[in-house]
Design a protein that fits this description.
- With 313 residues, this protein is mainly alpha-helical.
- The chain has one domain: MetI-like fold (Orthogonal Bundle), CATH 1.10.3720.
- The chain has twelve helices and no strands.
- The longest helix is centred in the last third of the chain and has 38 residues.
Length: 313
């Protein structure tokens, strides 16, 4: 097992290196002068020259890349061109909102998606299955911002159960914290659950046709045991894959949600950096998100080996 994990880690290292090169390249090939954007139209040539020197834009790209990699090796993501502060300093106050929103969304979407998918497979071809499949199609079709505005109109404007916008830190009240994120969690959780439920249903129906399922039923195993103990474990590999890939994607996917509900998270920081062409922040955030994808793929690979011992060989 440990040999399998070590091999997966070694295979992930080149991917991280390629991600770093792509991240650096994408930001620098974009048109426009970041120094001019930061200083505005009234900037003097002297001010532009000084800012370009400060941002390192006066040096050739290979030297800029080497310096960026050297800073990364020391744990330094860079400094914002606007605030002149470390990216870690800018991001540390935004980690909690995004992390809390991501954890709650993953729990809600996984629970709803897997539960509805198993129920839909159990009732395949029956009215309940048709209803759940229709709901899934609607979940794919409805944009996130539209669902967010519907929830605000229904639960905030008309019923008054939630505030329209705003965020409460967990230090200022446990219940108030979850209450301030409730609508955002529901929006992202419901949209994520629709895809997970469809995938769970398809995987379950495929496994239920296998011979060992018929054998389990012939031995007198009750239907809940057949679905949960025998079928779901073998059908869970594609489900785990989707859930694992969803986690780092939430950082960028929360851009709309955090903007609508005024949540001061990492996604708003990334959106602001892209708008202002703040190179260092964009590079740092993209690298963190991309590395998160690679790490989650590694975790998923390890979970595969526990779900199906044959994979490690």
């Amino acid at each position: 097992m440990w040999r399998y994990i070590v091999m997966r880690v070694l295979a992930a290292l080149p991917v991280v290196a390629v991600v770093g090169v792509i991240t650096f390249s994408l930001v620098h090939i974009a048109p426009g002068d970041p120094a001019s954007i930061v200083l505005g139209n009234d900037a003097t040539p002297e001010n532009l020259r000084e800012l370009r020197e400060y941002m390192g834009l006066d040096k050739p790209l290979p030297i800029q890349f080497a310096k960026w990699v050297g800073n990364l090796a020391q744990g330094d993501l860079g400094t914002s061109a606007f605030s002149k502060r470390s990216i870690w300093f800018e991001a540390k106050g935004r980690i909690q909102p995004t992390a809390s929103l991501a954890i709650q969304t993953i729990i809600l979407s996984s629970f709803l998606g897997i539960s509805l998918g198993v129920i839909s497979a159990w009732q395949a071809g029956r009215p309940l299955d048709q209803i759940l499949r229709l709901v899934s199609v609607l979940g794919f079709s409805v944009p996130g911002f539209y669902l967010a505005f519907l929830l605000i109109w229904g639960f905030s404007v008309n019923l008054g159960w939630f505030g329209v916008t705003g965020y409460t830190r967990i230090q200022d009240g446990f219940f108030e914290h979850f209450h301030s994120l409730a609508l955002a969690v529901i929006v992202n959780g419901v949209l994520g659950a629709t895809f997970i439920s469809r995938l769970t249903r398809s995987a379950m129906l495929e496994v239920l046709r296998e011979d060992y399922i018929r054998t389990a039923r012939a031995k007198g195993v009750a239907e809940p045991g057949v679905y949960l103990r025998h079928a779901f474990r073998n059908a869970s590999i594609p489900v785990v894959t989707v859930i694992g890939a969803t986690i780092p994607a939430l950082v960028t996917g929360f851009v709309v949600t955090e903007s609508i509900f005024a949540i001061p998270g990492l996604s708003k920081m990334l959106l602001s950096a892209i708008t202002n062409r703040d190179y260092a922040v964009v590079q740092g955030m993209l690298l963190v998100v991309a590395t998160g994808f690679v790490f989650m793929n590694l975790v998923v690979d390890v979970i595969y080996a526990y779900i199906d011992p044959r994979i490690r060989y």
